[in-house]
């Protein structure tokens, strides 16, 4: 079913309805220059009409494509209820099947978009639908559980609450447009968003009136913390390796889904046939989620914007070549090297020439290449007074300082210097530049007095003037140290080995600077507060809070360390 096409500017605009296998209809808009069959770039979005304003629609039309924007079920006038992520595979497959049969489609479809729009691509690509020729997932996670809702077991509170608040407002707006009386629910949402720091602290987490009613996923994600079958059913991480089309994977060093962007790229390259592997491309800039300006956190990255590498033209070139069935000619990997202020082309990820160096944490607060003597350090973690979030790979808002601390990017960590619940390990002053490009992991040997706890790690660039600029960070929940599918409670006082994934970076630590690693047990409200009780995140109340004494061990028997991917000087 389609409305009468109308011409807008130099495009023909046509509103369409696509039938799904369950009888519901999803609505969308098609932009085309005429009625001739052309390849179609499909964008599936839950964000309504405003999504179309930021798409490169006219450049795509000029490049010979038609563009279809479809609104996910329960959004933008489409039938049904939005149940976050749960229907995107079936709905996407049904849409592509319908699309290739339309007279204005030549049978070739590419998909494009960032964040949720990128997830819609990965939800279908592993199914190998007929007609799909290319994907361009931008800043998208590789796993809904360990990568979006959680990170190594810790609930990603900041981004989860921010997204659900934003999307609840959109859903209520859609309901109002349909004539529903939403005044009471809008007022309740307004009260919640009027004091966002208080909203982060409110417990139990599962109790979020309005949000939980409008979007069932808020409660579901917390209720299903220990339900791997649920996450496998709605997710695509186990299927993305079957992707058999060219892919252009775009991420940012300060995007909260950076690990997902890299993992998706490397998974497809590792498992695909040689031709498909050759046609995968990775671009990572000094960007945050949806921000490609090159100004991130407190740093301006010279030539770091998408414009500096003509990203839009690269995307168009990739799509043209993929639709034509030609080998794609973009470089395999393009990365921005922070600290050096330049883009660089690479042949693979991680880089083949990497010198994987182990830098050891010492009981005297040192960080270096030599194994330290045996020893340990202690600190006290109080969930009533968690270490506050200061920059990083974030997607959240509402910090007490006007929002600055909760903005993504590299931020000065000296605001935390007065805290005694952070262990700091600092290298000697560097006598030469040290480039660190690749995945980052911290190996930590530690014990806690509580039934459960978190350990965080942060990589920091200490400047000669004292600035301590955050580069990358991570967290692990003790009971999930072996993975979220293998919860294993800790015994208070026993020493366990923890691996903390800090994601990845490309950062030159300049001569005269120092490299620092901070260890703590909270990063709030980016992540929820671990109560120390071992209870699921959604059920915790302040009555469950336990102050924990943490002991970190060092030396030959307990080599706490960070693995740095050092790139030899050219």
Labels describing this entry:
570 residues; seven-stranded antiparallel beta sheet; globular
Write the layout of secondary structure elements.
Blueprint: E1 6-8, E2 11-19, E3 25-32, E4 38-45, H1 57-62, E5 66-71, H2 88-99, E6 105-114, H3 116-125, E7 132-138, E8 150-151, E9 154-155, H4 157-177, H5 183-193, H6 196-201, H7 211-214, H8 217-223, H9 228-234, E10 247-252, H10 258-271, H11 274-278, E11 280-285, E12 295-296, E13 299-300, H12 311-323, E14 333-337, E15 342-346, E16 355-361, E17 367-368, E18 375-381, E19 423-426, E20 434-448, E21 454-462, E22 468-477, E23 496-509, E24 514-520, E25 548-554, E26 561-567
Parallel strand pairs: 4-5, 4-6, 6-7, 7-10, 10-11, 11-14
Antiparallel strand pairs: 1-2, 2-3, 3-5, 8-9, 12-13, 14-15, 16-17, 16-26, 18-25, 19-24, 20-23, 20-25, 20-26, 21-22, 21-24
Give an overview of the whole structure.
This protein is of the alpha+beta class. The chain contains twelve helices and 26 strands. The model has no long low-confidence stretch (mean pLDDT 95).
